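Colleagues,

For the teaching module next term, I've prepared a clean inverse folding example: a structure given as tokens, and then the sequence designed for it. I'd like students to try predicting residues themselves before seeing the answer, so please don't circulate the second half yet.
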């Protein structure tokens, strides 16, 4: 049947209107509920249509969350004949050569020979990527074969180190955070590449608040390191705390000041002549106390606090993950104490005066004796050594760590956010 040219514009307008309403409906639906990503995938095969799907899909309201976690590494793999049939045949799947126990998974085709469904699962001891070698067998005759790849998924509960959990060594399928769960990196670089992330209020933390205070003496604070996440899609709520460690106490002390003030003639006694002209307590005749020693060396500077670390997040598809990022750079420590002051300078030399018993010399029959008596000397005390120098100034305080620049990047729409301050997308 031919379509009249008058009907074409009407149909086009109707189609555009329907598409517009459909988009509005999708936007409205997205704002009202959180969608959970589907795990179903299809594998191209010449004679078989192979689809794999997680055994238990997470419901939008999380009502089956417990079962979902239990079955997170179990999949239903469906085999459907594209041409011909596999009546009386079975599917036999085995893990790759690394499986020493040679665990086998079986399923039979239905009576029509068109469909078979086998359940495959990954255990904790398996690697991140598991290859299953599947064969379609009719008794001892191999009719067909296919290879199925499954990637491992992880559930974070409580406080976990990502590497002890097994996360960070390569691409994974799904990373799930239970409520209150924490991945604690301890400043080690963390790279997460996942197909999807599901978080019920989990956290990724570089250092706990308590651990940032436990700094090693004479050590700069450690940086929070880098957290890099690449995912296709994600949902839920995730908190990221970027903490640098505080600097350790500066315990080093400069060496004692070794320089000593030199001798100063101005500190010597100033009396001259005969002792009879000066009393024993004439301070002008005493040596003065030496100059105070030099001030001690300045203390060593405090240590620097660690930088906060950086968070890089990239989502390849539309994303419902609510992210909150906070920065806590480490604090620098106080400068070290100054060094001891140097020794004081030498005191001045007390005056030395002649002792004249009898100044009369003329007509004296014993003048030669008196002259010799006049050669006796009187020494006033020398000045004491100067006081020790003052303690040196404390060193300058160490610098606080920096808040490192972080990036959240959504490839859909190429939306990129750069920030080094508290940030959230909700």
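(Answer key — instructors only)
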């Amino acid at each position: 049947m031919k379509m009249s040219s008058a009907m074409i514009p009407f149909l086009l307008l109707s189609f555009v209107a329907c598409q517009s309403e459909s988009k509005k409906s999708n936007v409205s639906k997205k704002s009202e509920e959180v969608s959970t990503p589907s795990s179903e995938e299809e594998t191209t095969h010449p004679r078989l249509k192979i689809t794999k799907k997680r055994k238990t899909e997470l419901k939008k309201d999380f009502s089956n969350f417990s079962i979902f976690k239990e079955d997170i590494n179990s999949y239903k793999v469906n085999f459907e004949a594209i041409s011909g049939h596999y009546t009386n045949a079975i599917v036999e799947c085995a893990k790759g050569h690394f499986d020493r126990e040679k665990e086998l998974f079986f399923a039979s085709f239905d009576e029509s020979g068109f469909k078979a469904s086998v359940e495959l699962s990954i255990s904790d001891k398996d690697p991140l990527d598991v290859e299953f070698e599947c064969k379609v067998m009719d008794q001892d005759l191999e009719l067909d074969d296919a290879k199925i790849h499954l990637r491992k998924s992880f559930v974070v509960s409580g406080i976990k180190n990502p590497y002890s959990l097994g996360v960070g060594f390569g691409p994974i399928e799904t990373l799930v955070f239970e409520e209150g769960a924490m991945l604690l990196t301890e400043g080690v670089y963390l790279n997460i590449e996942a197909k999807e992330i599901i978080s019920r209020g989990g956290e990724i933390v570089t250092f706990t608040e308590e651990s940032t205070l436990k700094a090693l003496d004479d050590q700069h604070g450690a940086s929070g390191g880098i957290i890099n996440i690449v995912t296709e899609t994600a949902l839920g709520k995730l908190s990221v705390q970027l903490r640098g460690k505080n600097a350790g106490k500066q315990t080093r002390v400069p060496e004692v000041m070794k320089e000593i003030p030199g001798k100063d003639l101005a500190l010597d006694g100033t009396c001259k002549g005969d002792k009879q002209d000066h009393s024993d307590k004439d301070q002008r005749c005493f040596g003065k106390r030496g100059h105070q020693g030099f001030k001690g060396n300045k203390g060593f500077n405090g240590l620097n606090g660690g930088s906060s670390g950086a968070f890089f997040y990239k989502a390849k598809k539309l994303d419902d993950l609510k992210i909150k990022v906070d920065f806590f750079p480490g604090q620098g420590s106080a400068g070290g104490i100054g060094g001891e002051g140097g020794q004081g300078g030498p005191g001045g030399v007390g005056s030395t005066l002649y002792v004249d018993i009898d100044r009369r010399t003329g007509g004296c029959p014993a003048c030669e004796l008196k002259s010799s008596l006049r050669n006796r000397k009187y020494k006033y005390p020398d000045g004491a050594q100067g006081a020790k120098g003052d303690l040196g100034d404390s060193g300058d305080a160490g610098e606080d760590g920096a808040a490192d620049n972080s990036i959240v990047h959504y490839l859909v729409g190429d939306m990129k956010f750069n920030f080094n301050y508290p940030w959230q997308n909700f």
